[in-house]
Amino acid sequence: MTTPVPEPTQARKPNTNADPGHPQGTALTTSQGAVLRDTDHSLKAGPRGPVLLQDHHLREKITHFDHERIPERVVHARGAGAHGTFTSYGTGSRICSAAFLAEGVKTPLFVRFSTVAGSRGSADAVRDTRGFATKFYTEEGVFDLVGNNMPVFFIQDAIKFPDVVHSVKPHPDLEIPQAQSAHDTFWDFVSLHTQAQAHAMWVMSDRGIPRSFRMMEGFGVHTFRMIAADGQSSLVKFHWKPKLGVHSLVWEEAMLANGADPDFHRRDLSDAIKAGAFPEWELGLQVFEDNEGQSFDGIDLLDPTKFVPEELVPIQMVGKMVLDRNPSNYFAETEQVAFHPGHLVPGIDVTNDPLLQGRLFSYIDTQITRLGGPNFSQLPINLPHAPVNDMLRDGMHQTYIHEGIAPYHPNSLDGGCPYQAGEGDNSKMPFIDFPELVAESVKGRSNPVSFDDHFSQARMFYRSLQAHERRHVQQAYSFELGKCASEVIRARQLQALANIDVQLCAAVARELGLPVPGADTEVVDREPCPSVSQALGSWPVDGRILGIVASHHTEASVIETLVAAANHAGFQPLLLSSVGGSLADGSPVDRTLLTARSIEFDALLIADFLVPVAGAKVDSDTKAGAVRPPGAIGFDPRLVLLLQETYRQSKAIVAVDQPESFFQDLGLEGTGPGLVHASVPDAVPGAVALLATHRVWERFDESGPVPKDSARA
Ligand code: HDE
What we know:
There is one protein chain. Helix content is about 25%, strand content about 15%. By secondary structure, it is of the alpha/beta class. It has 4 domains: about 40 residues, no CATH class; about 300 residues, Catalase HpII,  Chain A, domain 1; about 80 residues, Catalase, four-helical domain (Hemocyanin, N-terminal domain, Up-down Bundle); about 150 residues, Class I glutamine amidotransferase (GATase) domain (Rossmann fold), CATH 3.40.50. Strand 3 and strand 4 form a beta hairpin. Helix 2 runs antiparallel to helix 3, helix 4 packs parallel to helix 9 and helix 10 packs across helix 12. Bound molecules: CIS-heme D hydroxychlorin gamma-spirolactone 17R, 18S. CIS-heme D hydroxychlorin gamma-spirolactone 17R, 18S binds next to strand 2, strand 3, strand 4 and helix 8. Keywords: Heme, Hydrogen peroxide, Iron, Metal-binding, Oxidoreductase, Peroxidase. It comes from Paeniglutamicibacter antarcticus. Pfam families: Catalase (PF00199), Catalase-rel (PF06628), Catalase_C (PF18011).
């Protein structure tokens, strides 16, 4: 059968970031634009072959396919991105001349969130630091803020980066475990190299398993320098503050998610954007006087293993970021985006933090390998929106057709162009290399003495957490060290914990069945900083997932009322029923008991209990592992499992017009915290009230969270 000859294809669009799209045209062609008749059969000598070497289309198609992959990032390989806009409040202009910080300026941007350790296909919900990298396409050139969701780092000097990364990556013999720090080499390094203890503490806390990228803080980690229009310099630390607050998974959810939905965070981000629940952050600065010692209150600002508590230096907000567009092509955008901490604009400069200094070398080097040459800034996702007039020429994948004959400076043949700032008609604001005084010193391989304190901030962080958060930290260390085969390593890490907090050390030692060592280092006690706790305060529920359990017999008006109220409150409602199809009001079922798992929902409304359907077999269905209590014999066992998991995960469950005995029948604790009975009109407001604090932590914590603290009040 012959395929009809198609229309000629659309002209290829030029590569500009303003319009980087390459829509699929109507007519199939080769890469050279020749229209093709057949892409389903190789060219053969007769229907039974052999295949002819002259089939250029076959060879081009397969050769290109063979080269579809580029080397993944050596760290931060697993990521998800989104486009958005930054709107400046103008408050940053007091200390920084950067044009994008002037009042009301809107700057397009692209953000890539990532895990650090795992490879590109690894699961999202692993315990790890998260990357939080933002590319601002400002009118003065690209500014990249390449940060993490934790304010401290494992090492103080870039020369240690290959060491820490080799330790967390899978063991080289068998390449296991993937995307995990729960193994010998990581804890070997961290326990020997105690400057890593503060960052390890953050990773062992709930921050290591975020609920969503939308609910993470971001930190520039290093101290940067800002220069005002009058030349005055300040030292600053960057902070991203999420509108939805900082929230985490519980460990059971993280483990379930990695099996049931390895794309958990990626999906959450793109679903929220699709649903119009656009994630938002405020950008804030901690500003420090640029003093000679570059320190604040005994904290060396050039030491990236330290942070400055908000209680000591409040964060001044300078603008807001909204992410409102998903990438159209993962590879072209999220995979090819190339960040660099040296992509700076006039008014922002680096400091001498030795970790930052090493990063300035590393990123361009890695992009050359990863993106196949030095011209990666010409890729649409990396292309500055400011005019580019460099004298960089040629190289692999050069897409510009440069004109002129004199790409050198000074020249007279191209009329002297391009001019440096201040030459010819170039009066533009140039990048400022701040004329910092370089202290008289001696060349050598050493650290300042102030870098020697490895434990005081880990202790401060731990002691600033709420009781349930501290329990999570104890469990995380116990799990991770319990996965180490070497008892020497476990004992060495316990020694580090003994220097951090005696009770933490004792709790972990108990789990490991090892003796509790005494401290062997004197550690300064710092004031706790409750602002690092995630438990204090309340937040909007925008875009949180509300599961509404309904049967095919639930009245249409009940479903309509609940869904409308959920949408009105800002939730993303998902209808859950025994099987698929449509409910009484015509709404399609979003999840069935076969496809749903507790991890998907932030809270549940039970509009109807679900009776067992054929296929729900208590004995043979692993999802129905929950033993039904006598009162729940009439319930689908998978619903019992869902509710029991949701309960264990300290999430709210609202029984809508259900009998008083509903929760007891399920084997849950009657009317315990977060188990609520409500009428149809009161159901969604009940969920809003409970979700504003993210979880019902009191459920398993007799002391309950400490009342709201002044830091968040
Ligand atoms: Fe990175 N880091 N890093 N890093 N980093 C990379 O660059 C490196 C560090 C961070 O979504 C690589 O393009 C060195 C701190 C993020 O594309 C590489 C050192 C912080 C991302 C690299 C550090 C980060 C990277 C790998 C120690 C938080 C992902 C691929 C001196 C402030 C960006 C790439 C994205 C990626 C090197 C330390 C954040 C190899 C040598 C500290 C968010 O160049």
